[in-house]
Design a protein that fits this description.
This protein is an alpha/beta fold. The chain is built from seven helices and twelve strands. The protein has a single domain (3-129, 155-226), classed as Alpha-Beta Complex (Spore Coat Polysaccharide Biosynthesis Protein SpsA, Chain A), CATH 3.90.550.10. It has helices at residues 32-43, 59-66, 78-88, 109-120, 165-177, 188-195, 216-226; strands spanning 3-8, 26-27, 30-31, 48-53, 70-73, 96-101, 125-131, 136-139, 145-149, 155-157, 161-164, 202-205. Bound molecules: cytidine-5'-triphosphate and magnesium ion.
């Protein structure tokens, strides 16, 4: 079986604040989703591509189809959207899946390839990571400092995250059965740690350009990266 890539693009983009789904927000004149799908295509690892879209969406679905991807109506949370895509992949014959945020639309093809390579060589769950730049401090509920955390053992997590398809399906089902609020699941690989604790989650180096466009400043950075004005 081959590789499926699920590009999650069903979010509303509240923090970006454009009043339209984030994946439709233009970057250098083209929707974020288009940049993301171009990266997936360039990587050349996908046998099929699914795109989760907001309920009632027309534009993102059309864009997905133009790029040979299948639009899937997403859910109320990222994890619910991933679940909807997994349901469509039922019986697809795919052996592995890469789950990718449309909002990380400048992720270099090399990151997709290194995640896919690691999955192909037997890793069942793979996440791209980067060292954290800021000093990290733990606080209590009142905001009182409990001291700094050793930053050298911390990593910031990116996407695409790669999984054996049967594993991701199993841990997603386990989360549903445990009554986990999908709103609290911000990361697919965390489901593996919670519901398949015997399975190792492997890391590969991420990339600075794989940052998530979340707030307005991120869009400024993305424009600069595209125009070659940022390293
Ligand atoms: N996503 C999704 N379905 C949802 C929520 C999010 O497919 N119900 C996708 C987003 O489209 C995005 C990725 O998950 O590509 C990461 O989510 P985030 O950056 O939080 O995007 P939004 O939820 O759109 O933004 P916000 O939280 O600011 O509303
Ligand atoms: Mg969100």
């Amino acid at each position: 079986g081959g590789f499926a890539v699920v590009v999650v693009a069903a979010g509303s983009g509240t923090r970006l604040g454009h009043g339209i789904p984030k994946a439709l927000v233009p970057l250098d004149g083209r929707p974020l989703l288009e940049h993301a799908l171009r990266g997936v295509a360039e990587a050349g690892i996908a046998d099929r591509v699914l795109v989760t879209v907001p309920a009632g969406d027309v534009e993102l679905s059309a864009l997905a189809r133009e790029h040979g991807a299948l639009p899937v109506t997403g859910g109320a949370s990222r994890a619910a959207s991933v679940r909807a895509a997994l349901a469509v992949l039922e019986g697809s014959g795919c052996a592995a899946v890469l789950v990718h945020d449309a909002a990380r639309c400048l992720t270099p093809p090399s990151v997709f390839r290194s995640v896919a390579r690691r999955v192909r060589s037997g890793a069942r769950a793979v996440v791209p990571v980067l060292p954290v730049a800021d000093t990290m401090r733990r606080v209590d509920e009142a905001g009182r400092s409990l001291g700094t955390v050793d930053r050298t053992v911390l990593r910031a997590v990116q996407t695409p995250q790669g999984f054996e398809l049967a594993l991701l399906r199993a841990v997603d089902r386990a989360a549903a059965e445990a009554g986990t609020d999908p709103e609290t699941v911000t990361d697919d690989a965390s489901l593996v740690e919670t519901h398949a604790p015997g399975v190792a989650v492997r890391t590969v180096p991420g990339h600075e350009h794989a940052f998530k466009i979340t707030r307005p400043l991120d869009l400024v950075l993305a424009e600069a990266v595209l125009r070659g004005r940022a390293p």
